[in-house]
Design goal:
Strand content: 15-25%
Oligomer: single chain
Helix content: 10-25%
Radius of gyration: 28 Å
Number of strands: 10
Mean pLDDT: 79
Structural class: alpha+beta
Low-confidence stretches: 4-19, 176-188, 193-199
Number of helices: 5
Strand order of the largest sheet: 4-10-9-6-7
């Protein structure tokens, strides 16, 4: 009887437990998207105000619905953000997202993962920073939340190295241990088979 009571209690607790919070996709600017009005020389909305009304956590995504007349720059460098200029920024702290497009006016959607806790800055450096200077920028504070999901918690790729040119000398041939006539490998295999057979007899 006690076992049924414990099982019933565990079922009730499990059913009433709140599910784990999920990660959030934040569409930057809501329905307005990420746009700049070049006629009035202003951003479509106040992006700092939009950001102030959101809660951002590691593993969330910022979704930029925009077109190729604006850029999407993510930086962790406040100096770069304040200057609206990425010319002196570092590859380690500033990232340009362009979805591989280079025609003006092409619609695009850019998903930017939030992978670093703390201050994250976003801007458009188009028109030599004019868009950023006139409101196409915002700062967010990313909280720990659930932490990064496994899909975003990966080590960075190895650094790029130039392939050898036709003029460079050929690489030396490397032979892995155990390669050769196979006698050592066959002897080890025979010992393993003999040990398993001996265990079966005992």
């Amino acid at each position: 009887m006690v076992n049924l009571t414990v099982i019933a209690l565990l079922i009730v607790i499990g059913a009433s437990a709140t599910p784990a919070a999920s990660y959030t996709n934040h569409t930057v600017g809501g329905d307005a998207g990420w746009f700049f009005n070049s006629t009035s020389n202003t951003s479509i909305i106040d992006y700092s105000n939009w950001a102030a009304n959101q809660t951002f956590s590691l593993g969330d995504f910022l979704i930029f619905r925009t077109n190729t007349n604006q850029t999407v720059v993510q930086t962790y460098n406040k100096t770069t953000f304040d200057s609206c200029n990425t010319d002196d920024s570092s590859d380690d702290d500033t990232f340009h997202y362009d979805a591989g497009r280079n025609e003006f006016g092409e619609a695009l959607t850019i998903a930017v993962p939030l992978t670093i806790e703390g201050s994250n800055y976003y801007l458009s450096d188009a028109d030599d920073g004019v868009q950023c200077q006139n409101g196409l920028s915002f700062e967010i504070d990313v909280k720990q939340g659930q932490g990064l999901p496994p899909s975003l918690n990966q080590p960075p790729p190895p650094p790029y190295t130039e392939p050898p040119s036709a003029d460079s000398p050929p690489s030396p041939t490397v032979t892995a241990a155990g390669e050769g006539n196979g006698e050592t490998r066959n002897a080890a295999n025979m010992r393993a088979v003999f040990a398993v057979a001996l265990l079966l007899l005992v």
